[in-house]
């Protein structure tokens, strides 16, 4: 349920970008700041989340995450009333802070909750429910946020002359409120459910308080596969968020379809993403996770190149299919990066979550490229470069090289 819930706002952002370009009459770079505010919240709250969970456990961190998530969703109502874009960005920042707690806790929790040899499979299975939330977010946004009213410049001028243009913008802005209020209520309800749920004991959390080592940042620097895993996550999230954020506009630019139909294409690519994640979980029984990710990365380099060079229906379907092959990347990078970290797992998990700042960095860069070239296809060069690094990580950088344990860690293992 947690994995499903945090997928909803992540992809509602893709709808918000298109909607706010309309309701606040802004360009693609300005609308791309939605992702900047969102992933900045992820980045800044991941480390505090890890420190809180290191002291109080996974359950406490997850409950705090849900409370922040719900609060941010409810803030959409006053933001719409005052008609301030900055207020919406703040609400998204609060939501993302909550999701940062959830990801920092849930991903390593699933990773350590069983045999380390199958952690990639386990995390891919849990993460497979995340795109179901993504699909729900896009469907809800397409149906309840998009009005289907798209004005051309002549119609805008007519409304301005009649003095009704501001009323139109306010009506479009208010359409975002109801879905977020409903989401906030659901999240608060689930927080109550989670508070009453008994969590299983995790080895790193068992024993007397202060008995087990908690790890350190200095120790993490000794794990090259982890350090490069943070970078791989940075590039992956940049590719994923950048692709999905501008997918609707890519579709409309090169096929001239209406926004609701373009939104349906985004829903479709998320369905493909979901299928890809479940299939990857199965294929990992026969193919090493890092090798499978490397193959998928190469395919995505080719598909994005087609999207860049052949914009139109061919490029659309190529970009559409990248979701299938990116589907295994987040959980696989996460699990590969955490391999062999032991008591450093929680802090390590928080730093990998901080890698999602790539979504805040690359999305506005793509917006800037579009503003300079007037070509969404050219902007797709950014995710292409990201997949090249992920290919390197899959085949080379992910090879775990665990250092000799420190005296504290060695003594802990003897005591255990």
Characterization of this structure:
- This protein is mainly α and 416 residues long.
- The protein is 79% helix and 0% strand.
- The protein has 23 helices and no strands.
- The longest helix is centred in the first third of the chain and has 28 residues, at 85-112.
- The chain is globular and about 70 Å long.
- Mean pLDDT is 86; it is low at 207-212 and 406-416.
Secondary structure layout plus pairing:
Blueprint: H1 2-23, H2 28-31, H3 33-56, H4 58-74, H5 76-82, H6 85-112, H7 119-127, H8 130-145, H9 153-162, H10 165-174, H11 177-195, H12 217-220, H13 224-245, H14 247-255, H15 259-283, H16 289-309, H17 313-326, H18 329-338, H19 345-354, H20 358-373, H21 376-379, H22 381-397, H23 407-415
CATH architecture: Up-down Bundle
**The CATH homologous superfamily:** MFS general substrate transporter like domains
| Number of separate strands | 0
Biggest sheet descriptor: none
**Would you identify the regions where 5 or more consecutive residues have pLDDT less than 50?**
207-212, 406-416
The N- to C-terminal Cα distance equals: 33 Å
State the CATH topology. Growth Hormone, Chain: A
Count of DSSP helices?
A: 23
Question: Could you say which overall geometry the principal axes of the C-alpha atoms support?
Answer: globular
User: H/E order of the elements?
Assistant: HHHHHHHHHHHHHHHHHHHHHHH
Number of domains as seen in the coordinates: 1
Class derived from helix and strand content: mainly alpha
- Percent of residues in helices: over 70%
Rg, rounded, reads 22 Å
- The averaged pLDDT comes out at 86
Task: Give the DSSP E fraction (strand runs of 2 or more residues).
Answer: under 5%
């Amino acid at each position: 349920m947690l994995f499903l819930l945090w997928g909803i706002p992540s992809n509602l952002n893709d709808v918000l970008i298109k909607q706010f370009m309309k309701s606040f009459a802004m360009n693609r770079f300005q609308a791309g700041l939605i992702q900047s505010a969102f992933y900045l919240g992820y980045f800044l709250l991941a480390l505090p989340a890890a420190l809180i969970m290191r002291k109080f456990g996974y359950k406490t961190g997850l409950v705090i995450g849900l409370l922040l998530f719900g609060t941010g969703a409810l803030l959409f109502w006053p933001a719409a009333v005052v008609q301030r874009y900055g207020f919406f960005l703040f609400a998204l920042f609060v939501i993302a802070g909550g999701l940062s707690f959830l990801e920092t806790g849930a991903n390593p929790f699933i990773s350590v909750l069983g045999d380390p040899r199958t952690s990639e499979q386990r995390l891919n299975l849990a993460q497979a429910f995340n795109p179901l939330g993504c699909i729900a977010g896009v469907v809800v946004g397409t149906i309840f946020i998009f009005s289907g009213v798209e004005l051309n410049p002549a119609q805008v001028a007519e409304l301005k002359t009649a003095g009704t243009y501001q009323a139109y913008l306010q009506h479009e802005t208010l359409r975002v409120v109801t879905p977020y209020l409903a989401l906030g209520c659901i999240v608060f309800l689930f927080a109550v459910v989670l508070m009453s749920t008994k969590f299983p004991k995790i080895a790193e959390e068992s024993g007397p308080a202060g008995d087990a080592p908690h790890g350190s940042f200095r120790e993490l620097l000794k794990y090259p596969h982890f350090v490069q895993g943070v970078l791989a996550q940075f590039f992956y999230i940049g590719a994923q968020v950048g692709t999905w954020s501008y997918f609707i506009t890519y579709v409309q630019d090169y096929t001239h379809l209406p926004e609701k139909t373009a939104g349906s294409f985004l829903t479709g690519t998320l369905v493909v993403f979901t299928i890809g994640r479940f299939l990857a979980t199965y294929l990992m029984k026969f193919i090493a996770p890092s090798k499978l990710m490397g193959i998928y990365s190469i395919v995505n380099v080719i598909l994005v190149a087609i999207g860049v060079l052949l914009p139109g229906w061919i490029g659309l379907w190529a970009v559409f299919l990248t979701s299938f092959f990116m589907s295994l990347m987040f959980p696989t990078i996460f699990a590969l990066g955490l391999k062999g970290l032991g008591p450093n797992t929680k802090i390590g998990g928080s730093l990998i979550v901080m890698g999602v700042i790539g979504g805040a960095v690359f999305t506005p860069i793509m917006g800037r490229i579009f503003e300079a070239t007037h070509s969404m296809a050219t902007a797709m060069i950014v995710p292409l470069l990201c997949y090249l690094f992920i290919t390197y990580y899959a085949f080379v950088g992910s090879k775990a090289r665990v250092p000799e344990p420190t005296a504290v860690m060695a003594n802990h293992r003897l005591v255990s």
